[in-house]
Each structure stands twice: as structure tokens, then as C-alpha cells.
């Protein structure tokens, strides 16, 4: 058995964490031979609820779970962690302006960045799930200067999984037979779900998705808007936001980051180097491949005029969000 790794989950008493903790502790993320020691961070008023979660984790009798530390102190929570799932964030409430949401979250991610900088392992892999995820990841990285920028990522895997599932249903094939769907840009309604380089396996033969679906209008309209608005559709139906699927996507993202992507690529919000004409130094979702724990942006994809417009639009939103967040940092 390998030595246990320390893994932190923030917002640990919340809905997403409730689905996520079992996946991490069961071996679905770091592999069937990697023991984990869980650090659970939440705010002080949630410590009672968190105690119940700790009891349930014990009651799961999981062989890979070597210990659990519940805490409201970020420096305790981030001490020596190799992986961080930053799930906790201020949710948007009715009548709340985006700027208010941003300022609440900037404070949270500034504090967590500072704590990571001080006590986490220097090669910690950080996944931000709490929204606005791209900008939260950027702020967190800004306040953790001793940790490489490429170790801070934002989750767009839920969007990728949603897109993959829509295409598989449309083609009537199993979801694992669709690969290389891309989510570009922000995890918001400006994101661009792009099927133009996706591949489908149909009757054992690999075929480009656009040729297999043979309906460009669908791929530019219904497909894009369905994925963009899926989160809102779940809220409308469930009266709560996506938690089960968000937890599964967070597991997928971190598993691939630790264990590699094999013969497919995945979407991750990563710090932009200007690839594909995107603005630099924002956290932008790109198609990436991962090897030995290092991600690399997929190069050489053709960007159509339609795609160019979509990339520019989501890039513009991210630049504005970044500026708003930096303004809040100065306050």
C-alpha cells in the first residue's frame, strides 16, 4: 500500500461534498491502492452538521480512508495537502448582484490562497468548483505565489460530461463512445460547448461527430444552449443545484489530473498562455491532455468563424470578471 495522501474538501458539510466525499474515500479518484486522509473544511456554524458527515464516513467502513479531520480553520485544513477540492463558495441568492457575489467569493478565495501558500505541499493540485469558478481559481492562485500557476484549475468537466451525454443520446450510443468534446472559456452561460473535433464510435468504427449527426444547425444552436443552460434546468426541476453530477465531474477532473487522460482529451479551466487567440492570464477552459500529473493544451485545432466568435465572447466576459475581482481585492 502507498503512503496516504492528504486531501482537503472545502464546503464539506454541503450538498456537493456529500456526494464527493464517498467517491474520494472509495478510491474512485486517486486509485484503488492509494489511501487518503481527508481534511474537511467548513465555516464554524456548520461544525455540527460536519460531525454527522464524519460519523457517516466512519460508518462506510472504507478500507482506503485512513483518517478524517473536520475543521473551521483554513491553515489546519490545508496543512500538507496534495490535492484540494475548493467546493465551498458563497451561493448566489435572489436579488443579489453579480458584483456582491464576486466580492464575497474574492474574500473566501483570497484567504484560502494565502493558507495554501503557507501550509500546503508546493505541488498541490487545486480544483476550484465553487462559482464563479474560473475567476475564483485566478484569485486563489494570485494569493499563493509560491505554488505554480498551472496547479490551479477550474472545473468545466461538468459541462463536458453534459455535452458528451447530449451527443451520445442524440446518436443513440453509449456515453463512453463519444470523446474529445471541448468546453471553451468560462463556466457560465457564455461557455462554448464544441463538438467540431469530437469523435463517436458507431458500430465499432470511429467517425467525426459532425458527420455522424449531420446537422450543423443543431450543433450550433440546440446543443450549445442545452449545455449552457443545463444547470438552470436542474435547479428548475430539483429546486436545488446540481450536486450529484458536480461531484462526479470533480472526481473525473482530479482523477485524470493525477492518473492521466490516455487516448482522449478533457476540458479544464487553466491559466491561459494566449493559445487560440484567447486573452492571457485568465483561467480559461481548454481541451487538454494530461501525462504524469502535467496538463498540456491540445494544439492545432481548427477554429471556425462561428467558434472564433464564441471564444471571443467568453474571453471578454472573463477579462471583465477578472477586472471586477481585482477591483474588489483593492478595497
UniProtKB/TrEMBL annotation:
One of its GO terms (molecular function) is L-malate dehydrogenase (NAD+) activity. Its EC number is 1.1.1.37. PROSITE patterns: MDH (PS00068). It is an enzyme of class 1 (oxidoreductase). NAD(+) binds at residues 42, 105, 129-131. Keywords: NAD, Oxidoreductase, Tricarboxylic acid cycle. It catalyses: (S)-malate + NAD(+) = oxaloacetate + NADH + H(+). The active site is at residue 187. Coiled coil: none annotated. Pfam families: Ldh_1_C, Ldh_1_N. Residues 5-152 form the Lactate/malate dehydrogenase N-terminal domain. GO terms for biological process: malate metabolic process; tricarboxylic acid cycle. It comes from the Eukaryota. Substrate binds at residues 92, 98, 131, 162. Gene3D superfamilies: Lactate dehydrogenase/glycoside hydrolase, family 4, C-terminal, NAD(P)-binding Rossmann-like Domain. Belongs to the LDH/MDH superfamily. MDH type 2 family. PANTHER family: MALATE DEHYDROGENASE (PTHR23382). This is Malate dehydrogenase. It comes from Parnassius mnemosyne (clouded apollo).
Amino acid at each position: 500500500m502507498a503512503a496516504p495522501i492528504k486531501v482537503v474538501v472545502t464546503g464539506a458539510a454541503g450538498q456537493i461534498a456529500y456526494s464527493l466525499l464517498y467517491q474520494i474515500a472509495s478510491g474512485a479518484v486517486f486509485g484503488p491502492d492509494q489511501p487518503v486522509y481527508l481534511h474537511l473544511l467548513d465555516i464554524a456554524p456548520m461544525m455540527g452538521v460536519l460531525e454527522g458527515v464524519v460519523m457517516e464516513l466512519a460508518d462506510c467502513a472504507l478500507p482506503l480512508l485512513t483518517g478524517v479531520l473536520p475543521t473551521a480553520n483554513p491553515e489546519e485544513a490545508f496543512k500538507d495537502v496534495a490535492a484540494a477540492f475548493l467546493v465551498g463558495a458563497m451561493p448566489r441568492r435572489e436579488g443579489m448582484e453579480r458584483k456582491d457575489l464576486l466580492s464575497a467569493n474574492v474574500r473566501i478565495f483570497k484567504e484560502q490562497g494565502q493558507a495554501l501558500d503557507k501550509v500546503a505541499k508546493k505541488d498541490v493540485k487545486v480544483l476550484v468548483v465553487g462559482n464563479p469558478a474560473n475567476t475564483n481559481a485566478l484569485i486563489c492562485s494570485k494569493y499563493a505565489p509560491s505554488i505554480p500557476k498551472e496547479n490551479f484549475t477550474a472545473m468545466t468537466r461538468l459541462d463536458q460530461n453534459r455535452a458528451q451525454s447530449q451527443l451520445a443520446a442524440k446518436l443513440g450510443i453509449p456515453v463512453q463512445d463519444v470523446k474529445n468534446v471541448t468546453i471553451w472559456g468560462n463556466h457560465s452561460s457564455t461557455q462554448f460547448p464544441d463538438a467540431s473535433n469530437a469523435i463517436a464510435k458507431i458500430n465499432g468504427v470511429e467517425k467525426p461527430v459532425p458527420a455522424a449527426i449531420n446537422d450543423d444547425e443543431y450543433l450550433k444552436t440546440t446543443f450549445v444552449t442545452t449545455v449552457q443552460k443545463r444547470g438552470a434546468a436542474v435547479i428548475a426541476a430539483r429546486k436545488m443545484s446540481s450536486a450529484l453530477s458536480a461531484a462526479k465531474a470533480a472526481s473525473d477532473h482530479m482523477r485524470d489530473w493525477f492518473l492521466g487522460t490516455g487516448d482522449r482529451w478533457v476540458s479544464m479551466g487553466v491559466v491561459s498562455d494566449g493559445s487560440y487567440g484567447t486573452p492571457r492570464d485568465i483561467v480559461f477552459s481548454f481541451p487538454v491532455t494530461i501525462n504524469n500529473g502535467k496538463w498540456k493544451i491540445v494544439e492545432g485545432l481548427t477554429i471556425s468563424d462561428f467558434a472564433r466568435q464564441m471564444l471571443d465572447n467568453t474571453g471578454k466576459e472573463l477579462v471583465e470578471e477578472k477586472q471586477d475581482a481585482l477591483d474588489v481585492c483593492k478595497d
